[in-house]
Amino acid sequence: MITEQQFSDAAEQLRRGNLVAFPTETVYGLAANALDSVAVAKIFELKGRPTFDPLIVHVAHRQDLLDLVREVPRPIERLIDRFWPGPLSVVLPRRTIVPDLVTSGLPSVAVRCPSHPVASRLITEAGVPLAAPSANRFGRISPTTAEHVREQFPRDLPNILDGGPCEVGVESTVVGFDGTSVILYRPGGIPLEAIQDEVGKVKVAGTDDQTPSSPGQLTQHYAPRTPLTISAHYGPIQNEQRVGLLALAQSAPPDKPSTFTAIEYLSKDGCLREAAANLFAAMRRLDEKNLDLIVATPIPEHDLGFAMMDRLRRASAR
Ligand code: TXA
Ligand code: MG
Question: Band of the pLDDT at 209, cuts 50, 70, 90?
Fold first, then answer.
Protein backbone atom coordinates (compact mmCIF):
# COMPACT_ATOMS: atom_id res chain seq x y z
CA MET A 1 0.00 0.00 0.00
CA ILE A 2 1.32 3.40 -0.97
CA THR A 3 0.33 6.05 1.57
CA GLU A 4 -1.13 9.46 0.76
CA GLN A 5 2.07 10.99 2.13
CA GLN A 6 4.21 8.92 -0.27
CA PHE A 7 2.09 10.05 -3.23
CA SER A 8 2.29 13.70 -2.28
CA ASP A 9 6.06 13.50 -1.61
CA ALA A 10 6.65 11.84 -4.99
CA ALA A 11 4.48 14.42 -6.78
CA GLU A 12 6.39 17.21 -5.02
CA GLN A 13 9.74 15.70 -6.09
CA LEU A 14 8.53 15.64 -9.69
CA ARG A 15 7.38 19.26 -9.58
CA ARG A 16 10.80 20.21 -8.18
CA GLY A 17 12.53 18.61 -11.16
CA ASN A 18 13.61 15.35 -9.50
CA LEU A 19 13.11 11.75 -10.63
CA VAL A 20 10.62 9.17 -9.30
CA ALA A 21 10.36 5.49 -10.25
CA PHE A 22 6.77 4.26 -10.48
CA PRO A 23 4.81 1.17 -11.53
CA THR A 24 2.77 0.96 -14.72
CA GLU A 25 0.83 -2.06 -16.02
CA THR A 26 3.75 -2.85 -18.39
CA VAL A 27 7.04 -2.22 -16.54
CA TYR A 28 8.36 0.26 -13.94
CA GLY A 29 9.15 3.70 -15.34
CA LEU A 30 11.67 6.37 -14.31
CA ALA A 31 9.76 9.63 -14.44
CA ALA A 32 10.52 13.33 -14.74
CA ASN A 33 8.36 16.37 -15.51
CA ALA A 34 8.17 16.07 -19.32
CA LEU A 35 7.99 19.85 -19.77
CA ASP A 36 11.22 20.51 -17.83
CA SER A 37 14.35 19.83 -19.94
CA VAL A 38 16.68 19.92 -16.97
CA ALA A 39 14.62 17.29 -15.15
CA VAL A 40 14.45 15.14 -18.30
CA ALA A 41 18.24 15.37 -18.68
CA LYS A 42 18.55 13.65 -15.28
CA ILE A 43 16.80 10.58 -16.74
CA PHE A 44 19.39 10.24 -19.51
CA GLU A 45 22.18 10.77 -17.00
CA LEU A 46 20.95 8.22 -14.44
CA LYS A 47 20.17 5.55 -17.06
CA GLY A 48 23.29 6.14 -19.13
CA ARG A 49 20.93 6.42 -22.10
CA PRO A 50 22.03 8.03 -25.39
CA THR A 51 20.03 11.16 -26.19
CA PHE A 52 19.09 9.91 -29.68
CA ASP A 53 16.63 7.54 -27.98
CA PRO A 54 13.33 9.44 -27.53
CA LEU A 55 11.10 9.06 -24.44
CA ILE A 56 7.40 8.31 -23.98
CA VAL A 57 5.28 11.00 -22.28
CA HIS A 58 2.63 9.71 -19.85
CA VAL A 59 -0.71 11.45 -19.29
CA ALA A 60 -3.51 10.68 -16.82
CA HIS A 61 -6.46 11.42 -19.12
CA ARG A 62 -6.90 11.19 -22.85
CA GLN A 63 -7.90 14.84 -23.19
CA ASP A 64 -4.40 15.79 -21.93
CA LEU A 65 -3.03 14.38 -25.20
CA LEU A 66 -4.08 17.52 -27.04
CA ASP A 67 -1.79 19.69 -24.88
CA LEU A 68 1.15 17.77 -26.35
CA VAL A 69 0.26 16.97 -29.97
CA ARG A 70 -1.11 19.01 -32.88
CA GLU A 71 -3.44 16.47 -34.41
CA VAL A 72 -4.82 12.99 -33.96
CA PRO A 73 -5.56 11.20 -37.24
CA ARG A 74 -8.74 9.12 -37.30
CA PRO A 75 -7.11 5.63 -37.18
CA ILE A 76 -5.02 6.62 -34.14
CA GLU A 77 -8.11 8.07 -32.50
CA ARG A 78 -9.84 4.71 -32.95
CA LEU A 79 -6.92 2.93 -31.30
CA ILE A 80 -7.02 5.38 -28.40
CA ASP A 81 -10.78 4.85 -28.02
CA ARG A 82 -10.26 1.13 -27.81
CA PHE A 83 -7.01 0.74 -25.86
CA TRP A 84 -6.59 3.76 -23.54
CA PRO A 85 -5.90 3.70 -20.70
CA GLY A 86 -3.53 0.82 -21.40
CA PRO A 87 -0.25 -0.41 -22.89
CA LEU A 88 -0.41 1.59 -26.16
CA SER A 89 1.87 4.55 -27.04
CA VAL A 90 0.95 6.79 -29.98
CA VAL A 91 3.53 8.77 -31.96
CA LEU A 92 2.05 12.08 -33.23
CA PRO A 93 3.23 15.55 -34.40
CA ARG A 94 4.34 17.37 -31.25
CA ARG A 95 3.56 20.85 -30.03
CA THR A 96 6.49 23.14 -29.23
CA ILE A 97 5.78 22.84 -25.49
CA VAL A 98 7.43 19.37 -25.64
CA PRO A 99 11.21 19.81 -25.17
CA ASP A 100 13.61 18.59 -27.86
CA LEU A 101 15.34 16.35 -25.38
CA VAL A 102 12.14 14.30 -24.88
CA THR A 103 11.76 13.60 -28.61
CA SER A 104 15.50 13.55 -29.51
CA GLY A 105 14.75 16.50 -31.77
CA LEU A 106 12.09 14.62 -33.77
CA PRO A 107 8.97 16.48 -34.91
CA SER A 108 6.85 13.75 -33.24
CA VAL A 109 6.28 12.70 -29.63
CA ALA A 110 5.19 9.32 -28.20
CA VAL A 111 2.33 9.60 -25.67
CA ARG A 112 0.70 6.97 -23.50
CA CYS A 113 -2.07 6.91 -20.90
CA PRO A 114 -1.26 4.07 -18.48
CA SER A 115 -4.05 2.08 -16.78
CA HIS A 116 -2.15 1.34 -13.55
CA PRO A 117 -3.93 3.20 -10.72
CA VAL A 118 -0.64 4.23 -9.09
CA ALA A 119 0.66 5.68 -12.37
CA SER A 120 -2.52 7.58 -13.05
CA ARG A 121 -2.71 8.98 -9.51
CA LEU A 122 0.95 10.05 -9.58
CA ILE A 123 0.52 11.92 -12.88
CA THR A 124 -2.64 13.60 -11.60
CA GLU A 125 -1.03 14.69 -8.32
CA ALA A 126 2.12 15.92 -10.04
CA GLY A 127 -0.10 18.00 -12.33
CA VAL A 128 2.33 17.66 -15.25
CA PRO A 129 2.84 15.02 -17.97
CA LEU A 130 5.64 12.59 -17.10
CA ALA A 131 8.42 11.56 -19.46
CA ALA A 132 9.39 8.02 -18.47
CA PRO A 133 11.48 5.27 -20.00
CA SER A 134 11.71 1.89 -18.32
CA ALA A 135 13.54 2.22 -14.97
CA ASN A 136 16.64 0.22 -15.87
CA ARG A 137 20.15 1.12 -16.88
CA PHE A 138 20.48 1.57 -20.64
CA GLY A 139 20.33 -1.69 -22.59
CA ARG A 140 19.46 -3.84 -19.56
CA ILE A 141 16.29 -5.80 -18.80
CA SER A 142 13.22 -3.70 -17.95
CA PRO A 143 12.11 -3.90 -14.29
CA THR A 144 8.76 -5.50 -13.44
CA THR A 145 9.08 -5.11 -9.64
CA ALA A 146 10.30 -2.32 -7.33
CA GLU A 147 13.12 -4.65 -6.22
CA HIS A 148 14.39 -4.84 -9.83
CA VAL A 149 14.57 -1.03 -9.87
CA ARG A 150 16.56 -1.00 -6.62
CA GLU A 151 19.06 -3.51 -8.06
CA GLN A 152 19.60 -1.28 -11.10
CA PHE A 153 20.52 1.81 -9.12
CA PRO A 154 22.33 0.64 -5.99
CA ARG A 155 24.15 3.94 -5.43
CA ASP A 156 21.97 6.76 -6.67
CA LEU A 157 18.56 5.30 -5.93
CA PRO A 158 15.61 7.42 -7.02
CA ASN A 159 12.42 7.65 -4.94
CA ILE A 160 10.44 4.46 -5.81
CA LEU A 161 6.70 3.92 -5.45
CA ASP A 162 6.21 0.18 -4.91
CA GLY A 163 3.02 -1.04 -6.58
CA GLY A 164 3.92 -4.75 -6.66
CA PRO A 165 4.67 -6.77 -9.81
CA CYS A 166 3.54 -5.42 -13.21
CA GLU A 167 0.60 -7.26 -14.76
CA VAL A 168 1.50 -7.11 -18.46
CA GLY A 169 5.27 -7.51 -18.13
CA VAL A 170 6.38 -6.28 -21.59
CA GLU A 171 6.52 -2.61 -22.62
CA SER A 172 3.74 -0.77 -24.44
CA THR A 173 3.06 -1.23 -28.14
CA VAL A 174 4.28 1.87 -30.01
CA VAL A 175 2.32 2.96 -33.11
CA GLY A 176 2.34 5.95 -35.48
CA PHE A 177 0.64 7.02 -38.71
CA ASP A 178 2.26 7.91 -42.06
CA GLY A 179 -0.74 9.58 -43.67
CA THR A 180 -1.98 6.31 -45.13
CA SER A 181 -1.34 3.46 -42.70
CA VAL A 182 -0.79 2.80 -39.04
CA ILE A 183 2.86 1.90 -38.40
CA LEU A 184 3.97 -0.48 -35.67
CA TYR A 185 7.24 0.86 -34.21
CA ARG A 186 7.52 -1.60 -31.34
CA PRO A 187 5.48 -4.73 -30.59
CA GLY A 188 4.27 -4.75 -26.99
CA GLY A 189 1.43 -5.24 -24.53
CA ILE A 190 -1.38 -4.69 -27.07
CA PRO A 191 -1.06 -7.50 -29.66
CA LEU A 192 -0.66 -6.57 -33.34
CA GLU A 193 -3.77 -8.68 -34.10
CA ALA A 194 -5.87 -6.48 -31.80
CA ILE A 195 -4.58 -3.32 -33.53
CA GLN A 196 -5.30 -4.76 -36.98
CA ASP A 197 -8.73 -5.77 -35.82
CA GLU A 198 -9.45 -2.09 -35.23
CA VAL A 199 -7.70 -0.35 -38.16
CA GLY A 200 -6.96 -3.02 -40.78
CA LYS A 201 -3.51 -3.75 -42.16
CA VAL A 202 -0.59 -2.24 -40.26
CA LYS A 203 2.97 -1.57 -41.55
CA VAL A 204 5.67 -3.02 -39.35
CA ALA A 205 8.61 -0.57 -38.97
CA GLY A 206 11.97 -1.75 -40.22
CA THR A 207 10.59 -4.59 -42.36
CA ASP A 208 10.82 -2.76 -45.70
CA ASP A 209 12.61 0.27 -47.17
CA GLN A 210 9.49 2.42 -47.12
CA THR A 211 8.86 2.12 -43.40
CA PRO A 212 11.66 3.62 -41.30
CA SER A 213 12.57 1.73 -38.17
CA SER A 214 11.80 3.35 -34.84
CA PRO A 215 14.42 5.82 -33.62
CA GLY A 216 16.31 4.43 -30.68
CA GLN A 217 15.12 0.87 -31.31
CA LEU A 218 18.54 -0.73 -31.10
CA THR A 219 19.14 -4.30 -32.17
CA GLN A 220 20.87 -5.11 -28.93
CA HIS A 221 18.67 -4.32 -25.97
CA TYR A 222 16.97 -5.97 -23.03
CA ALA A 223 20.19 -7.84 -22.46
CA PRO A 224 21.14 -10.10 -19.60
CA ARG A 225 24.90 -10.24 -18.95
CA THR A 226 24.87 -13.96 -19.76
CA PRO A 227 24.96 -14.82 -23.49
CA LEU A 228 21.50 -15.87 -24.66
CA THR A 229 20.65 -17.96 -27.70
CA ILE A 230 17.24 -18.83 -29.15
CA SER A 231 17.05 -22.48 -30.11
CA ALA A 232 14.52 -25.30 -30.15
CA HIS A 233 17.16 -28.00 -30.38
CA TYR A 234 20.04 -27.34 -28.11
CA GLY A 235 22.47 -30.23 -28.50
CA PRO A 236 24.24 -32.12 -25.72
CA ILE A 237 25.71 -29.78 -23.13
CA GLN A 238 29.49 -29.97 -22.97
CA ASN A 239 31.34 -30.98 -19.84
CA GLU A 240 31.15 -28.52 -17.01
CA GLN A 241 29.15 -26.03 -19.06
CA ARG A 242 26.51 -24.29 -16.99
CA VAL A 243 23.49 -23.80 -19.23
CA GLY A 244 20.10 -22.38 -18.25
CA LEU A 245 16.81 -23.01 -20.04
CA LEU A 246 14.10 -20.41 -20.61
CA ALA A 247 11.01 -22.12 -22.03
CA LEU A 248 7.39 -21.17 -22.55
CA ALA A 249 5.97 -24.24 -20.81
CA GLN A 250 7.01 -27.52 -19.28
CA SER A 251 5.39 -29.46 -22.11
CA ALA A 252 8.02 -28.50 -24.67
CA PRO A 253 11.54 -28.57 -23.23
CA PRO A 254 14.33 -29.29 -25.68
CA ASP A 255 16.43 -32.39 -25.04
CA LYS A 256 16.80 -33.60 -21.45
CA PRO A 257 15.78 -31.05 -18.84
CA SER A 258 18.14 -32.71 -16.32
CA THR A 259 21.17 -31.44 -18.24
CA PHE A 260 20.36 -27.80 -17.48
CA THR A 261 21.80 -26.06 -14.44
CA ALA A 262 18.66 -23.92 -14.06
CA ILE A 263 15.26 -23.91 -15.73
CA GLU A 264 12.58 -21.22 -15.96
CA TYR A 265 9.17 -22.10 -17.38
CA LEU A 266 7.25 -18.94 -18.21
CA SER A 267 3.80 -20.48 -17.86
CA LYS A 268 2.24 -23.68 -16.58
CA ASP A 269 0.25 -24.37 -19.72
CA GLY A 270 1.75 -22.11 -22.40
CA CYS A 271 -0.50 -19.11 -21.67
CA LEU A 272 1.15 -16.15 -23.46
CA ARG A 273 -0.26 -13.56 -21.06
CA GLU A 274 1.15 -15.34 -18.02
CA ALA A 275 4.45 -15.89 -19.87
CA ALA A 276 4.80 -12.19 -20.79
CA ALA A 277 4.22 -11.17 -17.17
CA ASN A 278 7.04 -13.54 -16.09
CA LEU A 279 9.53 -12.99 -18.93
CA PHE A 280 11.82 -10.25 -17.57
CA ALA A 281 11.89 -11.57 -13.99
CA ALA A 282 12.78 -15.06 -15.29
CA MET A 283 15.58 -13.62 -17.46
CA ARG A 284 16.96 -11.83 -14.40
CA ARG A 285 16.85 -14.95 -12.21
CA LEU A 286 18.79 -16.91 -14.84
CA ASP A 287 21.23 -14.03 -15.24
CA GLU A 288 22.03 -14.23 -11.51
CA LYS A 289 23.03 -17.91 -11.67
CA ASN A 290 26.49 -17.44 -13.19
CA LEU A 291 25.64 -19.47 -16.26
CA ASP A 292 27.78 -19.79 -19.38
CA LEU A 293 24.72 -19.64 -21.60
CA ILE A 294 20.94 -19.18 -21.53
CA VAL A 295 19.00 -21.19 -24.13
CA ALA A 296 15.56 -19.75 -24.87
CA THR A 297 13.16 -21.93 -26.82
CA PRO A 298 11.22 -20.04 -29.53
CA ILE A 299 7.82 -18.66 -28.56
CA PRO A 300 4.97 -18.77 -31.11
CA GLU A 301 4.80 -15.30 -32.68
CA HIS A 302 1.17 -14.45 -32.24
CA ASP A 303 -0.53 -12.22 -29.66
CA LEU A 304 1.95 -11.36 -26.86
CA GLY A 305 4.38 -13.93 -28.30
CA PHE A 306 5.38 -11.41 -30.99
CA ALA A 307 6.59 -8.87 -28.39
CA MET A 308 8.27 -11.61 -26.34
CA MET A 309 10.25 -12.91 -29.34
CA ASP A 310 11.20 -9.32 -30.21
CA ARG A 311 12.71 -8.92 -26.71
CA LEU A 312 14.43 -12.33 -26.85
CA ARG A 313 16.00 -11.52 -30.25
CA ARG A 314 17.37 -8.25 -28.88
CA ALA A 315 18.64 -10.05 -25.78
CA SER A 316 20.44 -12.56 -28.02
CA ALA A 317 22.09 -9.94 -30.27
CA ARG A 318 25.75 -9.33 -29.42
O1 TXA B 1 5.57 0.39 -21.43
C2 TXA B 1 6.29 1.34 -21.73
O3 TXA B 1 6.22 1.93 -22.81
C4 TXA B 1 7.32 1.80 -20.67
C5 TXA B 1 6.55 2.35 -19.47
C6 TXA B 1 7.44 2.95 -18.43
O7 TXA B 1 5.58 3.26 -19.91
N8 TXA B 1 8.23 2.76 -21.22
C9 TXA B 1 9.17 2.43 -22.13
O10 TXA B 1 9.99 3.47 -22.51
O11 TXA B 1 9.31 1.30 -22.56
P12 TXA B 1 11.34 3.28 -23.30
O13 TXA B 1 12.01 4.60 -23.25
O14 TXA B 1 12.08 2.13 -22.75
O15 TXA B 1 10.91 3.01 -24.78
C16 TXA B 1 10.44 4.06 -25.63
C17 TXA B 1 10.15 3.54 -27.01
C18 TXA B 1 11.42 3.33 -27.81
O19 TXA B 1 11.30 2.15 -28.57
C20 TXA B 1 11.43 4.57 -28.72
O21 TXA B 1 12.12 4.32 -29.92
C22 TXA B 1 9.93 4.77 -28.97
O23 TXA B 1 9.34 4.48 -27.73
N24 TXA B 1 9.65 6.18 -29.32
C25 TXA B 1 9.63 7.25 -28.48
N26 TXA B 1 9.39 8.39 -29.16
C27 TXA B 1 9.24 8.04 -30.46
C28 TXA B 1 8.99 8.78 -31.66
N29 TXA B 1 8.83 10.11 -31.65
N30 TXA B 1 8.91 8.07 -32.82
C31 TXA B 1 9.05 6.73 -32.83
N32 TXA B 1 9.31 5.97 -31.72
C33 TXA B 1 9.41 6.63 -30.55
MG1 MG C 1 13.43 0.61 -22.14
Answer: low
